[in-house]
Amino acid sequence: MNIPLIELTTQHQNLRGEINAAIQGVLDRGDFILGQDVSKLEEEFADYCGAKYAIGVDSGLSALELSLRAFNIGTGHEVIVPAHTFTATAAAITFAGATPVFVDVDPETWNIDVRKIEAVITPRTKAILPVHLYGLPADMHTILDIAKKHKLIVVEDACQGHGAKYKGQRVGSLGNAAGFSFYPTKNLGACGDGGMVTTNDAKAAETIRALRNCGQRVKNVHELPPFNHRLDSLQAAILRVKLKYLDEWIASRRRLALLYNKLLADSNVITPAELPGYQHVYHLYVIRSKNRNALQSYLKEHGIGTAIHYPTPVHLQPFYTKGEDKSGQFPIAENICNEILSLPMYPELTEEQVETVATEIINMMVPVS
Ligand SMILES: *Cc1c(COP(=O)(O)O)cnc(C)c1O
């Protein structure tokens, strides 16, 4: 018996006909770069998120970097970011030329601790970059209130949050802009790399369109930094097929997550927070355990795939420590990284498989005499 952490082939087998037809359409038109599927996906995704504009780019990382650049955030500026996230969140700030200022995470939600944001605001602070980690929205109203008070921009890292809702509103429509990733394992994944910015700001949308395409607002006039961060038409065509199924997949992820929560309720592991007003989309189903490493080995021996997202908080990554000992700065994030474990989660996972995983976790806790 084998239960992988994630499995991508079933989804593509189920959609084989539709995806093949979409690919063939691009081949027949030959509009490989910024073709009609890119603009149609942009319209459909903006609509899905409840945002006015969407701009297709080549990755989640560039979606975040270009969002910051579109609001003139760069050299000499500071951007507030949680210490517990994927490194790309902070890297986007660094690549835009600004400095990431880390904040510890909330012990219950594992998202940025909004009570600790105001203490790190300085005259150089220009933006807050909250992450909807694992698919659970950050506390956006509090973040937007702080941003308003201090005149800061808010860029959402929605790379794990496609379709998640905060007080009834989809992520990607809450801040000044949001960055999404279509990395294949994400809740809406391409068959390669891809990303998207959503925004309600017409000027930012126009700047990002120029930034992704060699800095051109007008053809052959390279006014802005001449990057190439375009989304290609083949990926867009595939994503348009998959977007139609996203809500169904989210419903499946939520059903499986709530089953895990129920089955693990009396175990000694901590299950993810399900909070009123927050619709978690379970990009990852992450538990906490004091015996994380032993539990991971035990599950591996029993054919169950797991992973750690992420074993090291960003402020302790070598790229950011520059050789200095920075440990102890953000104790909650550091603790979480020692205890978290991602369990198998994907829409095609069965309830029986979830039951098997939960049973093994409970078996492992019962001392074998
Ligand atoms: C995946 C991810 C990114 C980066 O997306 P890419 O498409 O891989 O560049 C950024 N932030 C978070 C939280 C992510 O999960």
Q: How does this structure look, described?
A:
The protein has 369 residues and is α/β, with parallel strands linked by helices. The protein has two domains: 225 residues, 3-Layer(aba) Sandwich (Aspartate Aminotransferase, domain 2); 120 residues, Aspartate Aminotransferase, domain 1 (Alpha-Beta Complex), CATH 3.90.1150.10. The protein is 39% helix and 14% strand. It has 13 helices and 14 strands. It has a seven-stranded mixed sheet, with helices on both faces. Strands 7-6-12 form a three-stranded antiparallel sheet, with no helix packed on it. Strands 10-11 form a two-stranded antiparallel sheet. Strand 4, helix 6 and strand 5 form a beta-alpha-beta unit. It is globular and about 70 Å long. The structure holds pyridoxal-5'-phosphate.
In total, the number of strands is 14
Q: Sketch the topology as an H/E string, one letter per element.
A: HHHEHEHEEHEEEEEHEEHHEEHHHEH
Provide the structure class: alpha/beta
CATH superfamily of the largest domain: Type I PLP-dependent aspartate aminotransferase-like (Major domain)
Q: CATH topology of the largest domain, which one?
A: Aspartate Aminotransferase, domain 2
What ligand molecules are bound, each kind once? Answer: pyridoxal-5'-phosphate
Please, what is the average pLDDT?
97
Number of H- or I-type helical stretches: 13
Give the biggest sheet. Answer: 7 strands, mixed
Strand order of the largest sheet: 1-9-8-5-4-2-3
Shape: globular
* Assigned CATH class of the largest domain: Alpha Beta
Q: Which runs of at least 5 residues are low in confidence (pLDDT < 50)?
A: none
Share of helical residues: 25-40%
Instruction: Give the number of domains.
Output: 2
The portion of residues forming beta strands comes to 5-15%
